[in-house]
Amino acid sequence: MSRRLLAASALALAFAAAPFAASAQDEATIRQAELLRDKAMTSNVALDYVTQLTTRFGPRPAGSHSEQAAAAWAADYLKGLGFQNVHIQEFPLVGWERGQDSGSILGDNPQPLAVAALGHSPATPEGGIEAEVVRFTSLEALQAVPDGSLAGKIALVDVGQMHAMQDGSGYGPQTRIRGAGPDVAAKKGAAAFLIRSVGSDENRLPHTGTTRYVDGKVAIPGFAVSAPDADQIARLMDLGQTVRVRLSSTAHVYETHSQNVIADIPGRTRPNEVIVLGSHMDSWDLGTGAIDDGAGGAITIAAAKAIAESGQRPERTIRVILYGSEEVAQPTNTGNGGGAYAREQGGKVADHIIAGESDFGADRVYAFALPPGAQGTAFQRIVTRVLYPIGVLTSARPETEGGADVGPLAEAGVPVFGLKQDGTRYFDLHHTANDTLDKIDPAQLNQNVAAWTALVWLIANSNVEFRSAMPKPAAQ
Where along the chain do its domains lie? Predict the structure, then answer.
């Protein structure tokens, strides 16, 4: 055995023997966490919720009637599970409807293209846009061409297939192109913007997603094209052909509202100390939003319900929030559920001791991350002890962002935690017509519920003050 292995073995033995510095009450709390964890592995609450949500309402675009109806139903569902203080918080929104979209290659041998208009992209003129495609292999290459040089053409940015990674880190470098691309293309004179779908699959299904407002508008129509069709365009160009395409969209925006659904399991001894469990209600219109993010709501609701029905109320309040309008951009910064909730709380944000978000599908949790300052603490070791038996390890990195919905709370100083899910196949399905209930594995869904239940129980019944444990900003 090498010295490195001997040292690792010694460290493991030392860790296993290390005292948890826990009182008898702490040991009872730990044992209860283990019992809750094991019971959650056979729960049917999460699967029931996501099944009913996606079956009753289908897709739930932000601000749509289906999102609003789903929120009203979810409020009643939570009341039926015994949650208290259930209410709906509305906020104004600019909604977007896709209408009809289509694409095709023109010429002597016309071919259909599988495309999807990008969220909040404007419609094309009636009859569509017909133009030559100019292909770029990076956003920077598009940015480098002279302004006006693409007049009357369609700018295609194709950086190649997204890499599937467990932590989903391949997504960010490509989704920035989807957000920024239409404005950059417009400055170069392009009539429309086209992007290879931001996804890790090879299905002939386009991945939609929102683009970005710049100075209160989206300048030109934008579309995602499926990976096989992006490859087809590239091959035609490699053969020396000029590729002309027709893109058509009847999308439009409208004034509406979205909403957050908020429900509590009140704390027994410290009800003013709030733990937020977040997910989002809205989805894209192509599928039924099962993995993005019906599953997240299912997981957090089931975890809180498991704690509530255990016969032992948590000391701190557990608050489940089903946020509205996570998926879409807005002309101003007011139309998102996370921001709306944080603004309404005002000074009460100081009562929020920690927040977490489930928004990465339904596949298994493989790691947990606590806020900065909690690394190496007795509390972290207790969590490791409880979650290791279901395959959840300690993350080497603290959690600092939390996700799009709880992000505004994090910006306001609320510590955040993360339960890291296996995202290897998430971006095969994300924002496509394939985001449907059959993609959820019930056993993996319940492993999520078990991890959330145990961790939240331990947080709710601890004396850990995550804010005070966080490192203070360096003096200027």
Answer: 23-96+255-466, 99-250
- Beta carbons of 362 and 436 less than 8 angstroms apart: no
Q: What is the pLDDT of residues 260-299, one digit of tens each?
A: 999 999 999 999 999 999 999 999 999 999 999 999 999 9
What CATH number has the domain spanning 99-250? 3.50.30.30
Cα gap 444→242, rounded to integer Å: 48
How far apart, in whole angstroms, are the C-alpha atoms of residue 138 and residue 136?
6
SS3 state at 309: coil
The single-letter code of the amino acid at 342 is: A
Q: Is the pLDDT of residue 19 over 60?
A: no
Burial of 372 (0-12, 13-18, 19+ CB in 10 A): middle
Between the alpha carbon of residue 426 and those of residues 167, 317, 407, the distances in Å are 10, 31, 21
Query: pLDDT tens for residues 103-143?
Result: 999 999 999 999 999 999 999 999 999 999 999 999 999 99
Q: Which residues pair with 420 in a beta bridge?
A: 367
CB 238, CB 213: distance < 8 Å? no
CATH code, 23-96+255-466: 3.40.630.10
pTM value > 0.90: yes
Distance of alpha carbon 163 from alpha carbon 152, whole angstroms:
33
Read off the tokens for 382: 């207790």
